[in-house]
Design goal:
Keywords: Ion transport, NAD, Potassium, Potassium transport, Transport. One of its GO terms (cellular component) is plasma membrane. Residues 137-218 form the RCK C-terminal domain. This is Trk system potassium uptake protein TrkA. The structure is a single chain. Helices cover 23% and strands 27% of the residues. The protein is an alpha/beta fold and 226 residues long. The chain has two domains: 2-117, NAD(P)-binding Rossmann-like Domain (Rossmann fold), CATH 3.40.50; 132-216, Regulator of K+ conductance, C-terminal domain (Alpha-Beta Plaits, 2-Layer Sandwich), CATH 3.30.70.1450. Strands 3-2-1-4-5-6-7-8-11-9-10 form an eleven-stranded mixed β-sheet, with helices on both faces. The longest helix is centred in the middle third of the chain and has 13 residues, at 75-87. The termini are far apart.
Length: 226
């Protein structure tokens, strides 16, 4: 897979290093001469250019890329790069870094963004995930279809504790993608039984998150009739 990364700062270089280790072809683009540090990621291609310029992206042969990552420290630049990558070069997958959480609402398909990654939001979500039981935590937003990757740790008092996955009437537009139980990562087969303390990861429509949390979080007692 060929990946172009706009922004060769610490974030861009770290992403490039991970992708190269996984066998991908990586091009780093930055307009600042001081950012061009070939010795730090020697296996990557490097291009000294402004990623907001069509001529630069032509030189980068963006049309041959499977993924473009807009990873600069400037949200305006990341939006422009995302829009050009999607509309001018038809890049199948565009991932954009969100530096200021106040700008997150802009990072959607209208600007060519398939996946928006907000570092402050992600760090906050990881903190919540570490300490929250029974509360839905949003980990990642997918622009297309208004879906999110969400996590919930099943509390002991949940009505679903001890229930098989296939017996649960899940909300529409939600999909249980994995169960993390201690050090194990489990595929959620219909026969798998949900246990207290399980970390459940879902891809869910935002409109269904509250319904999903209500289903998983607490045991609903019957309300006595008056």
């Amino acid at each position: 897979m060929r990946v172009a990364i706009a922004g060769a700062g610490a974030v861009g270089r770290s992403i490039a290093g991970e992708l190269l280790e996984n066998g991908h072809e990586v091009l780093l683009i930055d307009k600042a001469p001081t950012a061009i540090s070939v010795e730090r990621v020697p296996m990557a291609e490097w291009l000294l250019a402004d990623a907001c310029e069509i001529t630069s992206l032509d030189e980068a042969a963006l049309q041959r890329c499977n993924v473009v990552i807009a990873a600069t420290g400037d949200d305006k630049v990341n939006l422009v790069v995302s829009l050009l990558a999607k509309t001018e070069y038809g890049v199948p997958r565009v991932v954009a870094r969100v530096n200021n959480p106040k700008n997150e609402w802009l990072f959607n398909e209208s600007w060519g963004v398939d996946v928006a990654v907000s570092t402050p939001r992600l760090m906050s979500a990881l903190v919540e995930e570490a300490v929250s039981v029974g509360d839905l935590v949003r980990l990642l937003r997918f622009s297309h279809g208004d879906a999110n990757l969400v996590e919930l740790t099943l509390p002991p008092e949940s009505a679903l504790a001890g229930t098989q996955v296939g017996d649960v009437d899940w909300p529409v537009d939600t999909s249980l993608v994995t169960i993390i139980r201690g050090s194990r990562v489990l595929t959620p087969t219909p026969e798998e039984t949900l246990e207290p303390g399980d970390e459940l990861l879902f891809v869910a429509a935002q409109a269904r998150e509250e319904q999903l949390e209500d289903l998983l979080s607490v045991r609903h007692e019957d309300v006595p009739k008056s």
